[in-house]
UniProtKB/TrEMBL annotation:
Species this chain originates from: Larimichthys crocea (Large yellow croaker)
Region annotation (Disordered) ranges: 358-403
Any single Gene Ontology cellular-component annotation: microtubule
GO molecular function: ATP binding; DNA binding; microtubule binding; microtubule motor activity
Keywords associated with the record: ATP-binding, Coiled coil, Cytoplasm, Cytoskeleton, DNA-binding, Microtubule, Motor protein, Nucleotide-binding, Nucleus, Ubl conjugation
Source species taxonomy: Eukaryota, Metazoa, Chordata, Craniata, Vertebrata
Binding site for ATP: G101, P102, T103, G104, A105, G106, K107, T108
Protein name stated in the entry: Kinesin-like protein
Amino acid sequence: MAQRVAVSDGSHKKTTRVRVAVRLRPCMGKEDEKDEGLCVRGLDSQNLEIVNWRNATESVKYHFDAFHGEQTTQQEVFVSSVKPILPHILNGQNASVFAYGPTGAGKTHTMLGSPEQPGVIPRAVRAIFNLVKAKKEDEGWDYSIGMSYLEIYNEKVLDLLSPSSQDLPIREDKDKNILIPGLTHTTIDSFSDFDKHFVPASLNRTTASTKLNQRSSRSHAILLIKVVRTQRAPPRRQQTGKLYLVDLAGSEDNRRTGNQGIRLKESGAINLSLFTLSKVVDSLNSGTAVRVPYRDSKLTRLLQDSLGGSAHSVMITNIAPEYKYYFDTFSALNFAAKSKLIVNKPFTRETVAVPVLPVKRAREDHQARGSGTEPQKKKQKEERKTEHDGSSPSGHIHSLSEPSVMDRLIALEKLMMSCQDKDRLGMLKDVAQSRKEIQELKEKQMEFESKAVLFSRLAGEKSKQEPAFKNNVAPLQRKQSTTTKPNKQQAVVQPLQVSQLQPLQQLAVVKKQSVCVKKKERKLSDQVELPDGKENIMNDGWESQLDTSVLEQSRQKILQVLNSGSLKELKGLQQIGDKKAKLILGWREIHGHFTKLEDLEKVESMTEKRVSSFMKANLLSAMGK
Ligand SMILES: Nc1ncnc2c1ncn2[C@@H]1O[C@H](COP(=O)(O)OP(=O)(O)OP(=O)(O)O)[C@@H](O)[C@H]1O
């Protein structure tokens, strides 16, 4: 039996951006009951525009890798957005395609389609079989294709190929591969074989009728196609590529879906996971977050490899043109715009055969020495484990003196020297860099701690007092001025271009709000210009007495609670009661993140004065005053 070790092909470690395509579904007659017209339209194969809710006489333009208009066929979507990434799977790399968008905007139509208009999934699987067939004929590799199919329903991972199974666990191996122990994996050898398993499994997916979609998907569905290819001749290299095809459940505004009871609970889980998805994208883009919150939902945990990981990823954002979807469409487009900034690093997952002779000799040695059955079993168990999890033989230092182990190590070393020098050097460099960063972080933390001690002394408190943030120091983040420095997320969310345009139709959208927002923005900038002015409620001098870096840390801490805190955590903030906490949650659900504390003014009933007093109370409390 061949001993295998995991290696990665350093030569393929290039970065690649998540490709983002937007697909606009055709207007469905009954969706536009009020005959309000359309709020979004395509400009060309990469650009589209949507009415600007802040100023109805303007439109907001977006640029994506591809724009698929109402008339685009299923075949065209597949050829332009999905087909180009499929060959990577046959080279041991991972790829993923996921459909994102509001409920009823066409995600399932895009991914699954119908028998008359098959979508991405059947087309991609058929294409993989065709690619394998073409490759088989001219190369010395054997291919095997398998599938798994699961759904995440109410934060439970359910096996669609084995519907009676319970919630499955998600694990990560030492190479950062996400695994689901117990998930059915079925080998398929033709497209009709795939269809035989896939069609009944799709019927197991949880769907229900809501006000917005008669057959709404209540879960996120993930189909995994795994292609393993093995060299026929020695050294019998083996490469494994995976394709994830994901049909996400739609984001929902429950005021419009009319959801109640179980539908409302499902909706809560759907919105929570999509909100976490948005947080993951934000922290990947910010470049400052130490921890990307993949673990905050099952969905993001499973998509870890597709966002900021090693997969070639394509996101198809589905949108609907009718006015009643306006805000959903707007936020979906903003999510899509920020997703296209994510960078992945695909690489080949490969295993190679290691000479088997020494293993056999070791066993013979044991038998010759009459070492009994127990140690022998133990050794066999260890060998099996190594094969299963790819752990390095260097872990068995106690048996280094055994000639068999020495031989295996030498063989392994030779292999690594011959094909992996570049990769090893890269890894060593990475380790050195990480160590340096950790050291710098430690030094920064000490600096903050001593500043905090100094600060509390100056404030006349007992010098014995524990330094602020000693144990729960927020991760060090790039310093950001909340008033002048443009925020990265804002830069994405803001219109790429705003132009005075012929209005699309029905332009009287929330004009009042736009005036309101502008007025507030002006006031905030006024405050910057007049630091000591009487009108300036926020900057009444108290902030200038505090250490700026500690102040910034506290701001980030409060912002984090505003952006990701539960109802209870929000209520834990000063001056935030039940009603305000709910309003904040509601705002978050619709608009996403607050980029700075002052954004709280956008929440209903949060006046400038209230926000100012909120900030003072919470900042002082966070700083231990
Ligand atoms: N490009 C399209 N062409 C024709 N019909 C479409 C298109 N996109 C969507 N539809 C139709 O619109 C309806 C809603 O689409 P679909 O069920 O795919 O939405 P969804 O985004 O998956 O919704 P949910 O999140 O609620 O599951 C369906 O009847 C579908 O056939």
